[in-house]
Fold these 3 entries.
Entry 1:
Amino acid sequence: MASQKTFRLEDLSKIKKEDLVGRISLLIDEDEYFHDRVVKFLKDEFLGDNYSDFSVFKFDSIDSFDDLGVVSNCSLIRENRLCILDNVFSSNKDENKRILEYVKELSSKDDSLIFLFIEKDRKYSKSISSKFKEGLNIFSFERLKGSSVQSFVKYQFKKAGKDISNSEITYLIDILGYNHRDSKVSLQNILNYVDIISSYSNDKSIKKSDIDANVEKSLDTHAFTLLDSIYNDRKNAYSILEDLLYRGESEYRLLALMLSNLELTLKVIQLKKKGHNHIEISKILGVHEFRVKKALSLALNLTDVQIINSIIYGYEVDENIKYGILTSKLAIELYMSKLFVEFR
């Protein structure tokens, strides 16, 4: 039997039925979109076009090995069967070992049965990989980046019968925070928003207003917008603040993000003066280009001194909160009042 094989997303179209027969499959990814893609692929390629509900078995826990035995005993119902084991492992190492042993035994006896392990936890996926040093197909997909994400979004809107410009796609991806470092936003999340926005819009083309009406911006984006409004539109700034607090956002967390964004803006200004562009600045500071662009936009209106003073005010307010001199609500309003004066 051939050794382990690793497949990327672009490899799916190249995999043949003979690559699957008699082998265990392992999907290592947290994104449900990839789960659906791999399961659909296995159904189409291994089971064929006319598979039924009796051909596919899915378990999110193994209460008894009789459960898995049923899968093996169903060979008379249909020739090929797919058994999906979705995050079935637990902290019980002995139980996990028994599951692996039993799956290995069933797989070795029946080429018409294939197993797919879906594992989010890397330590469990390593256990599977170690157990099946031979005959394991590993599906491991990297997070989409750059033009790949753009193409994905455009294609999904096209499937929904909608047109969308590249600038609107960039805006949607940015406010969802998909490209942010440590982002938990998945392709499945994006796909859900594509469905919502497409259903909402009565026009052929998706506009920015359609996105704004259906997508909640990240708090980091709101913090930048708030700083921009403090400089440009005092009334709107208070409206943004009240809206965020009404929805239960923490005043202290918002203050921390405002300070973080001001500190980032100061660093961006300094690097810009040295001749670096936004892509280079992003790499030097280790932050996403989206945040760098936001900082550059804010920097157009402010001097180094204004930003430094604003950071100092922020830390003074932070101390007043910590020592109970001011409530967090009063503190953030006082901070904004000081910024109104500083940003004039």
Entry 2:
Amino acid sequence: MAFNHLLGRRGKLLYGAGDEEAGNIQDLTLNITNSETDVTKRSDRGFRTTAPVLHELEVSFTLIALAQDDPLRVALNEAYLNSESIAAKVLDEEDNGPVGSWWVQSMTRNEEIGERIAYDVTLKPEEIEDWYEDGAGTYDAELDRFVFGG
């Protein structure tokens, strides 16, 4: 019996110029929110009303430390220490998600006794180049926005 569910375990983080898949990560999370502005008017009868202003993205995951020279750990560490960004795509199993350059906001190393060393990593966008839907870009330059659903 086939299941019609998107599974979290099939999500992926591709990084670097060669789209290397980060195989040693856990709990990949793409947090999508909006900032807001107050648009309350007297006619709102005492209720505060707001409107969305900017989209905000944040990527977080746990990186399992396999070796000191692990390519993803090295790339993240160098990007963090040099205040540079890292190219990455954050995709679900149908290849939907943001593509861009991300800076390392935090990289917290956990060294719990009896556990393997792991890093809790948070990335924030420096530039969003595209947003893939079914593996294809959806940015409409003429409209200067991302277009979903045709």
Entry 3:
Amino acid sequence: MHLTNKFGVPEAIVIKIKADIDSDPYNKKDDIRRHFRTTELIGPPLIQTLQIKHDDIIEQDAIAYLAVQYGTQFHKLCEGFDNETYCYEQKVHKVVIYNGIEYVIDGTIDEIFFDGGCNIVTDNKTILLRNLPYPKPEYEKQLNVYAHMLRGEFASDIPMKLQIRYFIKDWTPGDLPKALERQKDDFAVMLTGNKKAKKSCATQEEAVQYIARELSPALQARASVKQRDKSYMRAQIRKDIPESSILHKPVALESAEAMNAFLQERLRDHIDTPERPCTEEERFSNDARCKYYCAARSVCLYAKSKGY
């Protein structure tokens, strides 16, 4: 892969990017088995297929890695020294057999907290404030894969909890009061769809009561639809806006059976259909993955056809 720098990224950052690209944190060179990083396995198979097939001609600009470096630095800020209570940057792996062949799934757990009564597994992520209401299922799957790798490491009677620690890149102290000021209009108009409620409802709870008290069954049904649209989600983020730039969100722990089935399904996708075109969902909304995040964009026929 050729790293370019068409947009004048500082040389010190470019050097760090090159070092990250060239690194092999899981020491795979002497292992003849095929390895997958957890994020690779969860993602569409075509990306890894193109990267392996066209590694000598793929071009990526350093500007595309800046967001990754942002996340890397946040990880470093959160990393402490291992002790009896905390473990940081723990390398984990799991051997999975598919069609009689061994494959290795690799991952790195950002933080494990041991308190004797419950083990808390944390994954660090960066996010924009406007994206908080739209959870990324792949984040939760990634964390569950890590937890699945840890099964058997802890005593069976000690529960395990999962959480994502978000660093909100564009959060400012002024966001909270602004959000509170706009709650009244958001919940009255967007939740009920009725402008007359504007002066009557100052909170979500009052808006719900207004629906039950004042609106006809038909309008109540319409209001329930409103709760699922993006306008309502914009209102919701203002209601639930975090009080700081750090936010912890719990993630449901999936069963061992469910995760075994998930890993088999992902291996089937990668091994049996390595050149399957990405689905619309995998490309993200408005092809955002293709435009901004895909490392194989320069050799992807779909991306080229769209001028990305």
